Amino acid sequence: MSETNNETIQQKTERLSMIIAWFDSDDFTLEESIAKFKQAEELAREIETDLTSLKNEVNVIKQRFEEES
Amino acid sequence: MEKPQDNQLIFCVSDFIAIFNQTIEYSYPSVAIEGEVASFKVNQGKYVFFDLKDSSGSVGCFMSLFQLRTPIEDGMKVIVMASPKLTAWGKFSLTVRSIRPSGEGSLKKSYDLLKTKLEKEGLFAIERKRPLPSQPKSVAVISSVQAAGYADFIKIVGDRWGGMRIDVANVQVQGAVAADQIIRALNYFNTQESLPEVIIIIRGGGSADDLSVFSDEKLVRAIASSRVPTLVGVGHETDESLADLVADVRAATPSNAAQILVPDKKETIRSIKLRLGSLVPIIQNNLSQYRSEVNRLVNLALDNLDIKFTEAASNLNSFKRLIGQLDPNKALERGYAILRGEYKTGSIIEVETSKFIMKAEVKDVRNK
Questions:
Q1: pTM for the predicted model, two decimal places
Q2: How confident is residue B223, by pLDDT bands cut at 50, 70 and 90?
């Protein structure tokens, strides 16, 4: 996987959601907002790259199910 | 009376029965017979007896209750897989290995009976349903890899999402052995050291008979007892199987199962961009609010300064008016005069009016 810092897409998406939620929270300050926006932009770019590059790994298992093993 | 020939074997009864059974087992190791069920009964909670008949014949059947995978009633048309046998008491019967309803009416009847039974047990209850993970990383699929439904599923999942490990159990999805194979695959995935996050059971469309596999009682119970949440997508949108009803999540088709299993990456990227875009107005609004606040404060300061100036100007005018009123010339203009000198009889005093300054003698001084 091309995920950086071993973070999954879901973890990155959750982190992005938290940053976006910060903009609507009482913690919002104009001074911090630009840095936070840049972080969000970077995360969004990483998620897009991950989503477009990752492929599924299909593995047909060898176990046979015709008879009780 | 006919007599045995010299070289002809003479059997004892039990040997004859054994030889007969051996012969018939060799000729017909397994027969499939279609007929109508009559005199169906279960003895001691273990053994099932019934007659299989058509318009001109009837044969007794025996099977263990354990092998009965679907509800059966008198009058149902069924297909049995059985071995013919002559019993020690000389009664011919079929030892049934499997039985399944045949024809739309019987399939429907059997389906309804089992549905009612399992519904009473609470197997389809909403409270039993578990949610599926929104972005699974490891899933298991039970299907036939030759089936069109399977190909659709894998393609759509690949189009929609990536980074997943998909373990596939290749099983038959129709026919007498299908239910047992699917059950074995379910057991396989449920006993792995590392469990998948979801087990997906899929099969494309087919006849009611083909799809009846997914209403097999043992299979339905195996799905219900799966440790791993299940997603079942069998047949077309209008098809309903008991596997659908017992699954944690039901999909209308294999393609729909793919849509339920994973989000659409294009939609996800679009949504992220939209959310990101929504932050710009928040920053702009805040900037604008700050600007407005600064403007308001500057205007307030200017207003206050204006008020102070006005107050000062007004005070100045009042003082001017007061000073004007205190000017002695104003009193002279109103007809008053200023007297200067000693106020005693015979002294000369100066009298000043608005127009003249005069000298006058004091003739008399009295207290008022």
A1: 0.69
A2: very high
Domain ranges of chain A: 4-53
In chain A, what residues touch B169 (CB-CB under 8 Å)?
A: 61, 63, 65
Do B47 and B28 form a contact (C-beta atoms < 8 A)? no
Is A51 in contact with B161 (Cβ distance < 8 A)? yes
Q: Are B318 and B312 in contact (CB under 8 A)?
A: no
Q: Which of A13, A20, A51 sits opposite B279 (nearest CB)?
A: A20
B264 touches chain A (CB under 8 A): no
Best B276, B285, B291 member to test A by mutation, with max A CBs in 10 Å, is: B276
Span B24-29, average pLDDT? 90
Q: Is residue A7 pLDDT above 90, yes or no?
A: no
Would the ipTM clear 0.90, i.e. be above it? no
Q: Where in chain B is the domain with CATH 2.40.50.140?
A: 13-102
Interchain pair B268, A47: CB under 8 A:
yes
CATH of B126-268, one of 3.40.190.150, 3.40.1190.10, 3.40.50.2300, 2.30.30.240: 3.40.50.2300
Residues on chain A touching B165 (C-beta within 8 angstroms): 56-57, 59
Chain B contact set for A47 (CB, 8 A): 268-269, 272
Query: Across residues A49-62, what is the average pLDDT?
Result: 91
Could you tell me the pLDDT band of residue B1, with boundaries at 50, 70 and 90?
A: low
State pLDDT tens for residues B57-102: 999 999 999 888 888 889 889 999 999 999 998 899 999 998 988 8
